[in-house]
Design brief:
mainly alpha; 52 residues; flat; 3 helices
């Protein structure tokens, strides 16, 4: 959902039945290694090329 929708963290956490947005962020970070905002930013960056 974070990659395809322009949805707020508050709305997303509510749709996924988390008690608070901060709890959702905490669980998200534990699962992905990144907070939601950093995850979304990482998807919008072009892939770095490893060609010489």
């Amino acid at each position: 959902m974070l990659t395809y929708n322009n949805i707020s963290l508050t709305d997303l956490s509510a749709k996924l039945h988390f008690s608070t947005p901060s709890y959702f962020s905490s669980v998200f970070k534990k699962r992905t290694g990144l907070p939601p905002s950093a995850y979304v930013q990482s998807l919008s960056k072009p892939a770095s090329s490893s060609q010489p």
